[in-house]
Specification:
The chain is α+β, with helices and mostly antiparallel strands. 45% of the residues lie in helices and 17% in strands. The protein is built from five helices and five strands, in the order H-H-E-E-E-H-E-H-E-H. A three-stranded mixed sheet has the order 2-3-5. A hairpin with a 5-residue loop joins strand 2 (44-45) and strand 3 (51-55). Helix 2 crosses helix 5. The longest helix is centred in the first third of the chain and has 15 residues, at 16-30. The radius of gyration is 14 Å and the shape is globular. The protein starts with a helix and ends with a helix. 26% of the residues are buried.
């Protein structure tokens, strides 16, 4: 599903908690999320310097952030099975939180990994 520029602009303008809710719905509907990749996954940092793993609900949103430190990175799909079975365990092992729905002007929401997983699985159960 291709997003229009108007859709992208209206969602990016939402406050971070509303973007988080939008992310959960889109991720469940499409059964995938997106990261930025270039010889490894893009990481960001919180204001305290802790690494976070940014995720987006569509390639178009990730592409908006592929500039500055992430110039040369490209959106890469992460199927939800891979997210739950491979990525989430690695993030837990390294104590690396997710950063859900970064924008060029906002770092998004940094949820507790268990809450994020529960929110996404609840939405998956709701649409099945």
């Amino acid at each position: 599903m291709r997003l229009t520029q108007k859709q992208i602009e209206s969602v990016v303008a939402l406050p971070a908690p509303k973007r988080y809710s939008h992310f959960i719905k889109m991720a469940a509907d499409q059964n995938r999320v997106w990261g930025l990749f270039s010889d490894g996954w893009a990481l960001a940092a919180t204001s305290t310097g802790q690494d976070v793993f940014p995720l987006w609900p569509a390639a178009e949103y990730a592409q908006l952030c592929a500039a500055g430190d992430w110039a040369g990175y490209s959106p890469r799909e992460i199927p939800l099975d891979e997210l739950f079975q491979q990525l989430m365990p690695r993030l837990r092992d390294t104590n690396t939180p997710l950063a859900v729905f970064y924008t060029p002007r906002d770092q998004g929401v940094i949820p507790n990994l268990e809450e994020f997983e529960a929110d996404l699985k609840t939405e998956l159960d709701r649409i099945e």
